[in-house]
Amino acid sequence: MERLLNIHIEKLPEGVYLATSDELQGLVTQGRTVAETLEIAHDVARKLLEAQSQNNEPDYLQPIAEQFNYPLVVSQ
Questions:
Q1: Which domains does the chain have, with CATH numbers?
Q2: What would the DSSP string read from start to end of 42-70?
């Protein structure tokens, strides 16, 4: 089942992007581009959620709604 997880991305002075989430403790990733950072964050989030489910921790993320807004990053 797909769930919606909000993450925060910021560009650090070193030129890399950092992704964190207030909704999923332990999610901290960085990458050279926004796309790379999102890809790594997706993998880390999946692994963290798998570990939580094995520990019988409650599923607190919201299911994806029928409609939602999504910011699409496009490079030129």
A1: 3-57 (3.30.160)
A2: HHHHHHHHHHHHHTT----SEEPPSS---
